[in-house]
Amino acid sequence: MKASEKIYEGKAKILYRTEDPNLLIQYFKDDATAFNAQKKGTIQNKGVVNCAVSSVIFEFLETKGIKTHFVKKLDDRQMLIKKVEIIPLEVVIRNYVAGSLAKRTGKPEGEKLPETLVEWYYKDDALGDPMVTKDHIRIFKLATNDEIAKVETLAKKVNDLLVPYFEQREILLVDYKLEFGRHPEGILLADEITPDGCRLWDAKTREKMDKDRFRFDLGKVEEGYKQIYERVVG
Ligand code: TMP
Q: What pLDDT shows up at residue 13?
C-alpha cells in the first residue's frame, strides 16, 4: 500500500490517501508542539518511536477485543489505518493527579485518584480545546448520547487494559488522551497512543518519560521516548 494525496497535516502526523478509499496512511513526524502550538520544536526520532509504540498498543488492544482504526504497521513512520470520521472530542482518562487537573483542583501531582476520571474536551485548536460537559456535547451535537455512552465505556475498558499493561513494563499510566472515530463497523479507537498524548512515569522513581519533558524543558527528551520504546516495543 502506497501513500498518494496528502489529505490532512496535523501538528505531529500527516494523513495520506491510498488506492483503497477506505484506508489511509498515518505518517508520524518528529515535530513537537505544546500549549496549543505556542511552543514548537523537534524531538529526534519521535515519529519512529510513536509509530512503533502506537502499533504495538493498538495490536494489544485488538487482541483484547477493542476495535481500533489500526490495520498494520507499514514501515518506521507509517501505519495503515481505517478511514473514520473523527468525533471532535479529546477524551482524557486520568488515574493520578497531574497537569491541568493539578492546576484546577490544587491537588498535588502524583496523588492517586480513587477511581478513573474521564474528562471531555472539544477538539478545536482555534478555541484551545476547551473542556466541555456531556450536556455541551449533546446540545451542540458533537456526538449523540448513544455515542457518548459508548465512548465512555470503551475509554474505561481501554484503561482497565492499559494500566496493568504499562505496570508490567514498570510504567505508571498517569493520564492520557484518546480520540474515537465513526466507522461502518461502529465506533473505533483512533489517532495514536504514544508518549505525546500520555503521561508515563517510571513506576519506581516516578521520573517523567513523556512529552512533559519537552513541554516543561526537563531535558533528556529523546531519552524519555527511547525508554518508552524499549519497555513497550523492545
Ligand atoms: P492536561 O493535564 O494538560 O489536561 O493533559 C491530560 C493528558 O492529555 C496528558 O496526558 C496529555 C494529553 N493531552 C494531549 O494529548 N493533547 C492535548 O492537547 C492536551 C492538552 C493534553
A: 98
Picking from 5, 32, 137, 74, the residue whose alpha carbon sits closest to that of residue 118 is 137
155 burial type by CB count under 10 A (0-12 exposed, 13-18 middle, 19+ buried)? buried
Amino acid in the structure at residue 82: K
Q: Is the Cβ atom of 199 under 6 angstroms away from ligand 1?
A: yes
Q: Domains of the chain, with CATH numbers?
A: 6-82 (3.30.200.20), 85-220 (3.30.470.20)
Torsion of CA 22, 195, 54, 185, to 10 degrees: -50
Residues forming beta bridges with residue 27, ordered by sequence position: 14, 78
Q: How far is the CA of 176 from the centre of ligand 1 (A)?
A: 6
Is pTM beyond 0.90? Reply is yes
